[in-house]
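Whiteboard transcription, Tuesday session. T.W. wrote the structure tokens on the left side:
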């Protein structure tokens, strides 16, 4: 099985180094992007990188999870499932407000709740098995609702067709969490029917 890793905004594929070392028997495909290039421009590059790749399982963090859901719905016959980490399926309410103060920020335009990438993703069926790890620790004073320091927990729980599993982690530490690793291993095992 090919594990396709997609990092979060302003991160890199290196954010998955720990998880990757714990899953050495799977081929890793690392997709990189720059949020300021725009969601759909990045999406087209990712589609090209995955051309001809079958037997795909996504592991994606934050905005990377929105990319993963878009990619999975573009080629559902090639996808076996996915685990997203702290993904804001409901968008970012802070981005809705902040985009007026930072009008040239493409990522703020792409992640607010009424943006095309978020609204379009909400129309997609989450291919089972699909899990979102909800990180419940952390806090940002800029976000009034319960959050993990970056994303509200309600945005991470936005969909009712995705298996939700809470972990005691903040938005950034979720990629280093033993709980997260256990969720990923269990999801892969369910797909492959073996111990990883």
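and on the right, the sequence the group agreed on:
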């Amino acid at each position: 099985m090919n594990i396709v890793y997609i990092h979060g905004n302003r991160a890199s594929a290196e954010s998955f180094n720990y998880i990757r070392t714990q899953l050495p028997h799977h081929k890793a495909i690392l997709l990189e992007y720059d949020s300021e290039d725009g969601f759909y421009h990045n999406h087209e590059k990712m589609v090209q990188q995955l051309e001809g790749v079958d037997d795909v399982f996504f592991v994606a963090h934050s905005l990377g999870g929105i990319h993963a859901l878009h990619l999975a719905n573009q080629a559902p016959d090639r996808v076996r499932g996915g685990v997203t980490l702290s993904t804001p399926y409901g968008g970012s309410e802070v981005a809705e407000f902040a985009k007026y103060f930072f009008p040239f920020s493409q990522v703020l335009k792409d992640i607010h709740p009424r943006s095309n990438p978020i609204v379009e993703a909400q129309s997609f069926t989450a291919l089972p098995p699909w899990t979102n790890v909800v990180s419940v620790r952390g806090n940002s004073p800029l976000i009034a609702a319960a959050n993990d320091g970056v994303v509200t927990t309600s945005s991470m729980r936005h969909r009712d067709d995705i298996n939700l599993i809470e972990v005691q982690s903040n938005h950034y530490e979720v990629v280093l969490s033993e709980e997260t690793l256990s969720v990923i291993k269990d999801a892969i095992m369910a797909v492959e029917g073996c111990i990883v």
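Someone added at the bottom: The chain has one domain: 2-192.
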